[in-house]
Specification:
The protein is about 80% helix and about 0% strand. The longest helix has about 35 residues, at about 175-205. Helix 5 (about 85-100) packs antiparallel against helix 7 (about 125-135) and helix 11 packs across helix 12. The protein has one domain (about 5-210, about 220-425): MFS general substrate transporter like domains (Growth Hormone, Chain: A, Up-down Bundle). It has helices spanning about 5-10, 15-40, 45-50, 55-80, 85-100, 110-120, 125-135, 140-170, 175-205, 230-235, 235-265, 270-275, 280-295, 300-325, 330-355, 365-390, 395-425.
């Protein structure tokens, strides 16, 4: 990684650029999760305060996930052709506006506002990957990517805790969830300012010098190879894609519905269920720290690493189905570890895999495509799990069975792809 810009960075202080980006990139992802996950975290409060069906409230999140996933492809394409730091600035600006507007938007219009927010959010991750891959060596990239994902999960933790603290001070449920969005927007304004100032300094040193790619017919830059369709198919990418969809369905589907699951299964109020559910991103942070170290030291094939993690998650899903009704803390802890496993898989497949395409000059494009697949699964999971849970004949038992099936499918897909992917990346 970063072969094209090594000499420029050496002249202008590579160490300074990596350190500053090591702060700015996590901050951007912290803001991303603040302004994207706040809806799902307070969704049960919205359901209670406005008397909505779970599927009806889930539709807002589901369509935003579709927008986010589709936007990843567009953002990835643009991130390889224009200055990625400018795309990130634009995405943060729009998502701030959406979070300010949502609390004052009628229920029937929220789908449109959050759909726009989903697209704005899609302008963050692929450009971040391009910036990190172009300015860092492999070890620096792995460390910064892991820290960036930890920061995102920390944003989720912040929303859980801040919304719960607001609940302790306010008795008006509607006002509580509205203030959550405004808090997210306010913090993101500060992060946007830091991003603009920091990138301005890096641009002056030449550390963020990205040339525009205007024509497909132009000669490939030195050191950049051409990726053929045959080579991509032979890498096992189709099987990786299916496993990414599975991971997305479980990661976001479980995360979004666990507060409601705990609330209904153990007769908990929504505020208590949300506060207890903070354990999900906390375990996710621990998981990301572990997988970041493991990826640098022991894991040589990220796809096989994802496969064995999926296998462990399958066993946990089966255990959850058998024992979930006995103890709420065991249930919550098991669900948290499953989500933590999905975050580990996310790191292997969404952070590490796209970076393997840096030598082909399409790291942002592939990052956008790969990340969009996550949200194909997430959109289906968030909506379908809510639909199944609403069913009088199916309910939460059927939801838990679906988690087992999806985890097992992801395991098989990764293990099939592991060998051809190893040949491709070598």
């Amino acid at each position: 990684m970063g072969n094209k810009q090594t000499s420029a960075l050496q002249k202008n202080g590579a160490g300074y650029a990596v350190k500053l980006l090591g702060i700015l990139c996590p901050l951007v992802y912290f803001a991303s999760y603040l302004t994207r996950k706040d809806y799902s975290i307070v969704m049960q409060a919205i359901i209670e305060s406005e008397g909505l069906l779970k599927a009806q409230a889930g539709q807002v999140e589901s369509l935003a996930v579709i927008s986010y996933g589709a936007g990843q492809i567009i953002s990835g394409f643009l991130g390889d052709r224009f200055k990625p730091q400018r795309l990130i600035m634009c995405g943060l600006s729009v998502t701030i506006l959406c979070n300010v507007l949502l609390p004052f938007t009628p229920a029937g219009v929220r789908v449109a506002v959050w759909f726009v927010n989903g697209f704005a959010q899609s302008m963050l991750w692929p450009p971040l990957v391009r910036i990190m891959a172009a300015t860092m060596n492999e070890k620096q990239y792995t460390t910064t990517a892991a820290n960036t994902n930890v920061a995102g999960l920390s944003g989720t933790i912040f929303i859980y805790l801040s919304s719960s603290l607001i609940w302790l001070r306010l008795t008006d449920t509607a006002l509580t969830w509205q203030l959550t969005f405004l808090t997210s927007a306010g913090l993101t304004v500060l992060i946007l300012i830091l991003w603009i100032v920091g990138c301005g300094k890096l641009e002056k040193t030449g550390a963020l010098h990205f040339e525009h790619v205007k024509k497909k017919s132009e000669k490939q830059p030195d050191g950049v190879q051409k990726l053929s369709g045959k080579l991509l198919l032979g890498s096992g990418f189709i099987f990786i894609a299916l496993s990414i969809i599975s991971q997305g369905a479980l990661r976001d589907g479980i995360t979004d519905w666990v507060p409601t699951f705990i609330s209904e299964t153990f007769s908990q109020s929504s505020d208590k269920a949300i506060l207890k559910s903070v354990v999900l991103p906390v375990i996710g942070v621990i998981s990301m720290k572990i997988v970041g170290v493991a990826s640098n030291k022991w894991v040589r094939n990220e796809v096989s690493g994802a496969g064995f993690t999926f296998l462990g998650a399958t066993a946990l899903c089966a255990g959850l189905f058998i024992f979930y009704a006995h103890n709420e803390y065991v249930t919550l802890g098991t669900a948290a570890v499953i989500v933590g496993a999905m975050h580990a898989i996310n790191f292997f497949l969404i952070c590490v895999v796209p970076a393997r395409f840096e030598k082909y000059g399409i790291v942002s494009t592939m990052s956008g495509i790969i990340n969009s697949l996550t949200y194909v699964g997430a959109s289906a999971g968030v909506y379908l799990f809510g639909k199944i849970a609403d069913s009088k004949t199916l309910g939460w038992n059927a939801v838990l069975i679906s988690w087992i099936v999806i985890a097992a499918f992801g395991t098989v897909m990764c293990l099939i792809a592991a060998k051809p992917w190893n040949k491709f990346k070598e």
